[in-house]
Structures are given as structure tokens and as C-alpha cells.
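On to our target:
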Amino acid sequence: MTFTSLEFIFLFLPLCTAGYYIFGKKHGGLFLSIASLIFYAAGEPKRIAILIASILANYAFGILIKKSSTSPAVKNAVLVTALVFNFGILFYYKYMLYSLGSQNITLPLGLSFFTFRTVSYILDIYWEMMPGDRGLMDAVLYIAFFPQISMGPISRYTDFVRDMENRSFDITVFLAGIKRIIVGLFKKLVIADTLLPMIAAGFGMEASQRSVVLAWLGLIGFMIQLYYDFMGYTDIAIGLGSLFGFELPENFDYPYMALSVTEFWNKWHMTLGLWMKNYIYIPIFRACQSKKISKLSCYLLASLGVWLFSGVWHGVGMKTVVYGLYYYVLIAGEKLISDHLKARRKKAGLKKKPQTAAAAALSHIYMVVAILIGQLLFRCESLPEYVAYLRSLLGMSGNTVMQQEAVYYFRQNAVPLAAGILFSFPVIPYVGDRLKKYGGERIIRALSPAVYLAMLMVVFAFAFTSTYRSFVYFQF
């Protein structure tokens, strides 16, 4: 069961929402915990035991850490055991089964994402940011909360508990949540999924048969599809959280507007970036600083740890290591260049000048090219396939510039391609701000219900007629 399935839209969600408010705030948390386990079991009936075992083990680890607070050695031993347990499950499914020739075995639904939550649960207790004895149902709800368990967005334990305690019914927030769900479903079903046949055609051909134009259509289509697929899921998850009084964190901030690779990753999958900053980068950086190593060296070491982790998290094999190192080199290079220019300005007594339009355009072009090259590696199954696709993009595979298939797929996908590109920029917020500035609030209020109703009708049409297509990040 996924957010775009008919059983979720017309059965699970209405019943879950109604049940939550029938039980009220006092017992609503318990109801949501049970509903979340049912949601997971519907998608992974054979692996629900893994999730339950993980929750029970981490709840026990939390209690042991709390009780051993007066004995640092015991406390540290429990922490290490908990981390080995959590990452061990992830490593087993991602790497051990793969290396044993079990490539056809899929990861349990949301394994990476609920691992992030279990690690946050343990470390926030270890750092004494949260008590370790809040109750089993709190641990169940945090780790298994159904809007987030499959693909995030990733919340810290401390932040989630705050929302758990302060949640209340607000009709404005509730309606905003419904609107956000509609928008997310529209992005996933109408834009992202529509582009999949074109992407499959581009990536499914041999390099010599794939024309330059089709190669570019496939890659650009993939970039749009990936963005709206993941952002659509995030919109749905945030909207679902609003229905139950939870303010889930944003995950995207118009990343394709970025002027550097660093800025792109600060705007893309932001909750994963924050998680890695809190639980990987900062611990490594502080441990490095305690050895009296230079700040720059510690930055480079901690960043390497982050990007190696990010690379291997995105899959298995050498290509994932290359993927992480590729972005590490770019981001570390941007940092070194920025620091060098800053030092030169300081030495010369100069202030940083505002970036010109021409410089901003060049920076944006650099970012787009760098991300296209990097995310192509994410899409390809292997390094040889990646190199072959790069050659197709450049017309170096003996391939033609144009072919009939490229014309066909462009005509079929021109509208979702154009919409995907246009709305990757803040067009709607800009238009809304302009209307409000010039007294157009009445127009917005009048048109808004009709717009959302039309989107909902389109979503229903696609949901009833489309073939089921999983979200991209379900594989993690």
C-alpha cells in the first residue's frame, strides 16, 4: 500500500483520520502507532517483524543508556551495540545479500529511513537531549509513523516529541494538509509518472542506437521525474502530518535554482543533509578538533565521511562510491576556492561584491551541468553503462543526432516537461505575492477551491487509469 494506491486514498486514510479524532488526543497517539504498523504490514507483511524487532531493541537500548548514565563505560558500550545493531541490519540487506548473489532480494520498505530514525532515537537519548523512558508507544510512533516511514522527511526524535506533545486540531492546518496532499499526488501521478515511458526508452537503448536528442530527453526527463516523484511524496507526507497535528520538516527548497553544487545539496533532501550533519559530520569534526588538527583538515575529513556514507547509502557497488566521491570533490573544491577568495579579499582589505547577473548565470549553468553528470550516475546501473550514456549525450557512440523515437517522445511529453521545468522555479509563490501586493486576495480566495478541485479530479483520473509505479526512493 502506497500513498497513490486506491486502497490508501479511499480506505486507509479516511478510516485512519476518523479513528484518530474519535480516540482524541489522549489515545490518538496509541491509535496512530497501531495504524502505522498496519500500514507497514500491508506493504511488507513478511517483514513487519524486522520493524517491530528494531523498535523493541532500540526502546530497550534507550532504557539501558538512561540507566547507565552514571557509568560512562557501560553507556558507551550500549551505544556502540545499538549502532552496530541498527547499521548492521541495513548493511546486511544492502551489502551482504548482494555480495552473496542475492541481488533480486529487495530492501524492506523504508529500511534506510527508519534506520535514520532509530539512530536519532538512540543518539538523542545518549546525548541526554531526551529521556530514554518516555514509553514504548512513543518509540513506536516515532520510528513507525506511517507518513514518514517509507521515504521521510526525516525528523529528529527531539523535534517529533515536541510535536507529539503540542499537537492539536486546527481547521486551517487541517485544510492546508489536504491541499498539500492533493498537490503531492498531482506532482507524482501527473508529472513524474507521465515521463517514465520516455525515460525508459532513453535508458533502455544501446548507446549506438540512442540518438543524442533522445539521450538528452531521457536524462532531463529523469531529473524532472526524480524531483517531482520525491517532492510529491514529501508533500503528501507533510500534508498527512498536518491532518494529525504534526509539523513535519520541509525537504526541498527549489534546488534547481541553486548557483553551486553545495547550494543544490543544501536545498535537496534537506532533512537527510541535516541528519548527516548532526549525526555524522559534527561528531567526526569534533573528534578531529579534539586532536588539535586544523579546522580545514577536520572539515575535509568530516565531509569525506558524509559523502562516503551518502554514496554507499544510494546503492551497492563501486559506482556508489564514485557517486559520493564525485560530489565530495566538487563541494570540497567549492569550499577551498571560496576560502581562498575570502582570504585574498581580507588581505587586500576588500569587501565581497554582489554577484552580477552574468556571473550568476554562469554559476547556474555550472551547477546544472555538474548535477546532470552526477545524477546520471545515480540513474545508471553500473559505471560502464554510465560511460556509455555520457558518450551518447556527446554523440561519441556512433549514434545519430535525431531519430523518430525522439520526436515521438518529445511530442508526447512536451507538456509535463515544460511544466516540470517551469514549476521547479517559484512561479506560483511569485504570482501569489504579486496578486496580494496589488489587492488580489479575493481572486486567490475565489479561485483556490476550484483549482484544487480540478487538480483532485485529474489525480483521481490518473489514479484509476495509471499502472502502479513505486516512488523512486522506496528502494532505499
